[in-house]
Design goal:
rod-shaped; three-stranded antiparallel sheet; binds zinc ion; about 240 residues; alpha+beta
């Protein structure tokens, strides 16, 4: 059954716009001569006359009649997707109770390329890939993973003091079961005293309290140590404000 040339041409013109959201104009010679034939058409975006095969535009491929403009639009889409990808990683981690935030270096360059974030659980930067977090379900932070912090296991919120250095430290660690890594033991070897501890049923609760305390300490003007007292992998340390 032959397609009416007028109908065939109109379908083609409509598809040019529908496939791309851009404008195309008929030129001399723009006519339907068969489904597998090329049809000249003006791409208004770049001013070039393109000659796509009708079938590729109207058929299931839904091609862009202008490959040059299609590539440009594709580039814009990928950049947009980069923002979406970054936000998706942040959202997925937030839903899992592993909050992360952007840093000035946060950039997405592909599903398997590490993206820098700030891990809000340990205040260290981390570099998960989109693929690992979103597709594989891996955690975002190597530091947290290294110490195997389990958000669902019993967790203690500890308060440590180093009298010589005049430092105090608040952090969380899973309650040590036999053979498990004990972060507090590491600190006590370095001269810290464990002054108090509160045990929570889950790491999630302990972490919420810890982050609350850190925020209040910052609001009170205490300086939360950036690097100095972070060995080994302290969640943070605060310098007590001078009372004088
Ligand atoms: Zn074009
Ligand atoms: Zn972390």
């Amino acid at each position: 059954m032959a397609t009416d040339p007028a109908v065939g041409l109109q379908l083609f013109l409509d598809a040019c716009v529908e496939n791309t959201g851009r404008e195309f104009k008929p030129v001399e010679g723009t006519k339907y001569t068969g489904s597998h034939k090329k049809i000249p058409i003006l791409c208004v975006s770049c001013g070039e006359i393109r000659k796509p095969v009708r079938k590729s535009v109207v058929g299931t491929q839904r091609c862009d009649p202008c490959k040059a403009c299609s590539a440009v639009a594709g580039g814009r889409k990928r950049r947009h997707d980069a923002e979406t990808a970054i936000q998706e990683v942040i959202d997925v981690c937030a839903r899992r109770g592993q909050p992360i935030a952007r840093t000035p270096n946060t950039a997405y360059e592909g599903n398997q390329v590490p993206i820098e974030f700030l891990c809000l659980s340990c205040d260290e930067t981390c570099s998960p890939t989109y693929g690992n977090v979103v597709s594989t379900g891996a955690g975002p932070c190597g530091t947290c993973a290294k110490y195997g912090f389990n958000k669902n296991a019993a967790t203690k919120l500890y308060f440590l003091e180093h009298t010589e250095k005049g430092l105090a430290k608040i952090g969380i660690t899973n309650v040590s079961t036999s053979g498990a890594y004990d972060r507090v033991a590491d600190f006590t070897r370095l001269g810290w005293w464990e002054r108090s501890r509160t045990v929570f049923d889950t790491g999630r609760e302990a972490e919420a309290v810890e982050q609350n305390i850190h925020r209040k300490l910052r609001e009170m003007g205490h300086q939360v140590d950036e690097k100095a007292a972070r060995k080994p992998a302290a969640t943070s340390a605060a310098t007590p404000k001078s009372s004088g």
